Amino acid sequence: MEQTKHLNPLKKTIVGVQFLFVAFGATVLVPLLVGLDPATALFTAGVGTLIFHLVTKGMVPIFLGSSFAFIAPIIKATELYGLPGTMSGIVAVGLVYGLMSLLIKIFGTGFIKRLFPPVVIGPVIILIGLSLAPTAVNMAKENWILAGISLITAIIVSLLGKGLIKLIPIFVAIIVGYAVGYFFYGVDLTTVYEAKWFAFPTFIKTAFSWEAIIFMIPVAIAPVIEHIGDIYTINTVTGKDFVQNPGLHRTMLGDGLACTVSGLLGGPPVTTYSEVTGAISLTKITDPAVIRIAAVTGIVFSVIGKVSALLKTIPQPVLGGIMLLLFGTIASVGINNLIHNKVNLSSTRNLIVASLILTIGIGGAVLQFGNFTMAGIGLAALTGVILNIILPKETEKLDSELEEPM
Fold first, then answer.
1. From its phi and psi, is residue 2 left (phi > 0), alpha (psi between -120 and 50) or beta?
2. What sections of 239-315 are H helices per DSSP?
3. DSSP 251
4. Cα angle value 59/65/67 (rounded, 5°)
5. Which residues contact 300 (CB under 8 A, 6 or more apart)?
6. What is the pLDDT of residues 230-264, one digit of tens each?
7. Tens-place pLDDT, residues 156-183
C-alpha cells in the first residue's frame, strides 16, 4: 500500500503540493469569515501539522487545517472580548486537547464516549451548522447570481467530480466564482498589485481573557470527538493501528499543541482534515513525509504577500454561496451522527438533552455573572454535558416499556 516507496523526491513534492490544495480552500475560508489573515491560517496549518508529526513520531499521515467548528464562537467572542482576547480562548482549546490526552493515557477512550455520547455530540454539530446559516445568507444576498454560481459549482463538483477534483469542491467553487466576479462584476485587484511578493503573515498578540477562555473551551467537545473519528478513519485507510502506536493520547496531544501555537500566533484553531485523508485513500499514498511536504508548502505560500492579498479580494457573495452548502452540510453531519449511532429520540431523557442544546444555542441564551459571560455553542454544549451526567438513564427503560403494545 505504501506507494510512496516508489516515488522519487520530485514526485513526492508534487503529490505533497497536490495534497495542500485539497485542504487549501477550507483552510483559507475560515479566516476569511472570522476576520483573520488567511496567510496566518496557512502558516499555522503548516506549523501545526509539523508539530503534530513531531509529537506522533512522524508516523501518522494527517494534515491539520482550520476548524469550522469555531467559526461562530470566534465571531461572537471577538465581539465580546476583542480579537486578542479571543486568541487566548483558542490557546485554551489546545490545553483541553492536552487534558484529554492525559485522561486517555490514564483511562483509555471509554470515558470520553461516556462523557460525550452521540446524544450530546450530534446536536452540538447540528448547532454549529445552523448557527452559521444567517451569516451565509447575509453574505450571499449581496449578489445572488454570483452566490448561486459558486453554490452550483460546489454542488456539481461534489456530485460529479472525479478523482482528486471531487475532494476540492470549495477550491473549485472559489476559482469559478472569483472568475465570474472578475469578468462580470469587477473585482478590484489594486491591493494585489500593490502587495509585496514577500510578506510575513499578520501575527496577533494574545491578550489573556478568562471570559474568552471559558466561552471557548466547551466548543472543543465536538472537535475532540471528531479527532478520534478521524484517527480511526486513517487507521482504516492505511491498514495500521495508530490508536495503539503511537497512541491516541499522542495524536490528541499533537492536535492540542498545534491549536495552542495557532492561537499564540493569531491563527484559527486547527483540526485533523478528513479531506486530505480522502485524498490519501484515493491515491493510496500513505507516507507521512508527503503530508509534511504539504505542510511546508503551506508555510511557503503564507509568506507570498500577493497570495494573501488575492485571497482577501474574493467577493463576499462567492463565499456566501459556498457557505450555504457547507454550513448545511455540517448540520447534516450532526443528524447523521444521531442516526448512525442509533440515538433513541423517543426517549424523554435524550429528547430533553438534544432539545435544550438546540434551543439554548440557536436562541442565543447568555449566562452572565458580573464580568463573566458564557453564550452560544459553548453554553449549549456545556448544558448538554451536564444534563447527560445528571439525568437518570433509567427513564429510557421506562419510556421503552410505555411504548410497548398492551
1. beta
2. 248-265, 274-283, 288-302, 305-311
3. H
4. 125
5. none
6. 888 888 888 888 988 999 999 999 999 999 999 99
7. 988 988 877 887 888 889 899 999 999 9
